[in-house]
C-alpha cells in the first residue's frame, strides 16, 4: 500500500483582476477596506509592472507544478507519494481551501511549506498557524517547515545569480570589488525585535553564506530593507531608497540588488525594485542591477523538495 502525503505549498497570493484588488487589499489589512487613494495607488503600481499585471499567480502555479515533478521523481520506486496543493495567504485558493481539498481527497498526513525561505512570526508563522488550525479540524496530521534559508541548493542558486550580475558589471567596465551588493527582504514592523523574532538574523545568515560563496569582501555588501508598509508604526530600516542615497554620498557608483527574501517575480520585485529603486539609482547616477528571481530554478525546487522529504516522520 502506498503512503500518500499532502504537501501544502503556500504563497502570498495576488488578485485575479483589477476588480479584485480591493478585496485582496482588504484581506491584507485584516478586513479593513483601503481608502480610495490607497486603492488607486496600489492599482497604479500593478498597472506599471512589466510582465503582465499579476505575474505572481502564474509564477506560483509554475513553481507548484515544478515542485510536484521534483517530488514525483524523488518518490519514484518508493512507497510514498507526495501530492501538492496550493494555499494562498490573501487570495483564492486560500490556505484553508488547500487543506479542505486534502481532506476531500482522503489525505491524513500533510507537510506545509511556504514559498519564502525565512521565518518570522508575522510571515511564515502566520501561514503555518492557519494551515495547522484547518488541518486539526479535518484530523490531518500536519507539520510545517519554518525555514530553509541556509539550504545549500538555495545558497548556490542565489550565488549563481550574484556572480552573473557581477560579471555583467565587469563586462561594462566596472571593477568587481567596487560593486556594492545590497541584500534585501520585505521589512516588518520593528516590534518583531521585542519578540526575539529570528527573521533579521536568518536574513543575515543567508547573506553571509552568499558572501562567502561569492568571495565578496566585507566592505562590499550590506543588508537593507524594502517595501515597508505605511501603517503609522515604525518598520525595520534602513530602506533601500535611503541606502542608495547614502551610497551616493559615499561615492558608490555600482549597486547590485539581491532580494533574498523573495523567490518569484511579483509586485515587490518588479515595482519596488525594478521601477522605484532602479529609478532612484538612476536619479543618483548609480549604475544599478538586480539578480534574477528564483522562480522555478531546479536548485530552488531541490531545496524545497529536500526540506519536504526531510520533514516527513517515519
Ligand atoms: O505581486 C503581488 O501581487 C503580491 C506581492 C507581495 C508579496 C508580499 C510579501 C510579503 N509581504 C509581507 C508583509 C506585509 C505586511 C504588510 C504588507 C502589505 C502588502 C500590500 C501589498 C503586498 N503586501 Fe506584503 N507582499 C506583497 C504585496 N505586506 C500589495 C498592501 C499595500 C502595501 O502596503 O504596499 C502590511 C499589512 C498591514 O497593512 O497591516 C506586514 C512579507 C512578505 C514576504 C514573505 C511572504 O512572501 O509571505 C513579510 C510577495
From TrEMBL:
Q: Which GO terms describe its biological process?
A: heme biosynthetic process
* Annotated localization: Cytoplasm
**Reaction catalysed by this enzyme:** Fe-coproporphyrin III + 2 H(+) = coproporphyrin III + Fe(2+)
Listed under GO cellular component are: cytoplasm
Kindly give the Pfam families that the UniProt entry links to this protein.
Answer: Ferrochelatase
What EC number is given for this enzyme?
4.99.1.9
**Name of this protein:** Coproporphyrin III ferrochelatase
Name the species this protein comes from. Answer: Paenibacillus aquistagni
